[in-house]
Amino acid sequence: MILRRKKLHFESLCFNRESAIIACMSSMGREGKGLLFPCYGVKRLPVKRWNVRKPDEKTVQNLARELGLSQVLLRILVSRGYQEQKAVKALLNEQNQLTDPFRLTDMEKAVERIHKALENGERIVIYGDYDCDGIMSTAMLYRYFESEGADIAYYIPQRDSEGYGLNQEALRRIYEAGASLVITVDNGISALEEAEYAKSLGLDLIVTDHHHPRATLPHALAVIDPHRSDDESGCEYLCGAGVAFKLISALEAGASDWVLDLYGDLLAVATVADIVPLVGENREIVRRGMELLQNTENPGLFALIQACGMGERVLSCENVVFGLAPRINSAGRFDRVDSAVELFVSEGEELDSLAQEINELNEHRKKVEDKIVSQILERYDRDRETLGRRVIVIHGEGWYHGVVGIVASRMVERFGKPCIVLSVEGDMSRGSARSVEGFSIINAISACGHLLTRYGGHNQAAGMTLPTKSLDQFAEAINQWAAENYPEMPALTLSLDCAVTPKQLSVPELTAVTKLEPFGCGNETPVFYISKCILQGIYPIGEGKHLRLRFCQDNMVFYAIYFGMTQQSLPYSIGDVVDLAVTADAGEWNGEMRVSIKIRDLRLSGMDYEFLYHSDQIYERIMRGEQVECHDSIIPSRDDIAVVYRYLRTVKKISAPDEMIYSRLCKQLPSFCKLKIAVDVLEEMALIDRENSGGVRTISVRQNPKKVNLADSGILKKLERTKAVNCS
User: Looking at the domain 611-727, which fold is it?
Assistant: First the structure.
């Protein structure tokens, strides 16, 4: 029975919401240095590497005969390493048992102390985190303790004014509020000093976390973290809410199935949102949790689903990732995390307004994020040096810190390189980094640790704080480290499971693929490769924000949706032959089952993109003034430049990425690098103009240009000097 609800909220620690909602932002510019020659063009999208797996067809056919399963399903499985009948059966028929919570180190200590607190009526405070995982962890544990009649409260620090994790001021105020036991969820494993401070106050501390610990654990009454070196539970795949679920299960004498029935919807949302591997027990948690989510009995979660406009849908993990999770996270980004927790632990008429508030915060988040992105893109029309670097470091005054991580992710997608986005806040700057697979951003940042006041993270994402005066020095240092450790940078890579024809993407085949659900980290949604498709139609949808494209392959016509791609930005024209990377599913539409195909990426058929990427890397090294191998294949001759100019004069004006132009000239111009340099030279000599608008680069040939002598080109002169030095 729910007896009462309390939240600890200290006004002196509150962040002024008005200052969190940025009305006006401005970026900081700086002069470019060290370029061999100007980087005139901004590449619209990076050249991605496609890793197209090729499952052994003989194995696929044998398994199809033995198991009677769909060939598309089996191609996916074989490409992912399931090549034996036993392994396939184990995956498709798995019934993952929920593991014993007492296998986690220190669980017995935690349960004993909590039972004592419950018996004695002590005040317990849950210390949570402001992301979706932390919010759901807090809500689950709060609802459980409230149902037990505990004197329970929760505390989540303000993201902007307090930052992540335990802090001493909050612990002092929690102690003064009469608490004797603090339980962390989704944080605490690195809080060594804070744990000592809690002990000095007489506060008992139980840490539950899922992040990797330092060499030394916090001095707490119990530390429950599956990544402890002495933990043998095998639960390292759990998110923070997963560890909280284990704690509740242990408090209920191991009744995990019953606890999952109570909180599985909240737990599934947290597990999917935190992008932990959907393997082992997590598959069972998400499978059962998603079933509960479809008809959730949590009134706040139901209200949020309705506010998102998803009330009539069959909910999927994709709906959680792109629908629910961003909204829940927005509450934390703008220091309204209490609204999110109250939404999931409350009942009553106010839930609809809370859900609407969170929905509106997400809309505001999009606007703030888009404004920063627009400022970044506008800035690089003027300052393009940074785009040629291995690691892009971007900073601007007043950028709201709560969204810079999302902006960094968008910049990685746009530029295909590790990106660090920092908000300048007076003498200090705070920011987030995102990376591409194969480049450890935390190792790169750690190498520059002497310039930073605080940092942390992992291979693909990190955060940092540093003095504003050190920004330029930091950008130089991290790129120097990258040059020494990654002469050729890893590419943005897209993995494709197998090649298919449009005919094979049928309702029966795609229905069979659902046997692999739930999809997520470690069990990704299958991506299919469809080659040599003729683009036959381009139809804007969704107020022009997306495209519906018509293709034909081997006389079969099919349609695909390209979300987030506008007609202006699409670099392909009707009649072009392209390869597609797509996802596909079968769903009901107007009472009929239909196939829906969504484009992840597309590129020209017949192009050697591995060669293009390598050539692009050489171009950037030349641009930075670095030494490259001495050969004429990378420096355009007068005849090479003439080939490019004649083509551009023929088309007069073109909006297309470099590889599109190269596809028209590759028989006459064997080097992609030569093309890029030739276009730079033509612009330098005022024979063409290049303009960037809305992320689209347009090349226009000047009418009646003055006669020029290519021997006067500063770019070519510098290249010849560099060639002479490198060859000597």
Answer: Arc Repressor Mutant, subunit A (1.10.10)
